[in-house]
Amino acid sequence: MINNNMRHYTRFRAYQLSSAGSSMSISVENHFTLIEARYNDDNKKHILWELNLLDKTNIDVLHITSWDEDHCNANELRSILNELKPQLIEYPDYSPHTDSGKRSLMLIKTYCNMTGSSIRPVSPVIVSDDIKCAERLKGKDVLLNPIEVSDSSNDNSVIKFFRRGSFQILSTGDCESGDISERIQNNEIVNCEVDVLVLPHHGSEHSILTPEFLKALNPKVCICTVDYKNKFGHPDKKVVTWIDKDGIPYISTKTGDVIIQTVDNRNFKVSNYVSNNETLESVRKFTNKTYYPNDTY
Predict the structure, then answer these.
(1) Strands 196-198 and 221-224
(2) pLDDT digits (tens, 9 = 90+) for 147-161
């Protein structure tokens, strides 16, 4: 069990899947957020292991960035609701365009009506208020997208900047737009604080992911969420070239899970696993861009 006297102790995990998609979690002290409604034989035991570290059986937040099935699988969502019992569910406030998405939204509403758990549909109004309230207050998570409803479902993906921990994580969903890219680049909070960037749309080459975007954010490390077969060849070779040119380490879940955790109030370490998570391939240490100077670990 993690020592909860460690203020802002943070642990991030990107889970390897056997099918296309993303699955991640973030815990800060004993607060646990599962990112994306994916829960199957690939990641289930590892999610439960992470919860066990906190002596928990339930998750605090289920955060869904997109209704696409690789981010929110209705059958896997049902298992999450039945077994992990989230207290709050955040999801994109656009009408699902797939059968799985429509079923998922119905499951969420039924679950919350039956259990009294909360829902937070992420709409442009919610995002705008979140950005205004956050300003530069340390320790407040910020929703950054969608700022407007787009004709592209991908660009309605939820972008969230997780800032409660000792290192800061930007989750970007499947966004593709250059307009979104410019808005994120011009956000002072993001520019100053991003330590870990989860590459947009699994590292595909789209207008959001440019050399300028990477330079502006200048993350300590990039994470690419892909399945072990990596059917679509993510991240794109051009994107890899840009990342390498800027000297930013990037790690993919193609070989195994990626775990990032607090070392002390100034540093975090990144561990990359291979061979179905049986072997630790590498560990690297990084210095946080921001830190809590009065905290000791």
Answers:
(1) parallel
(2) 998 888 888 999 999
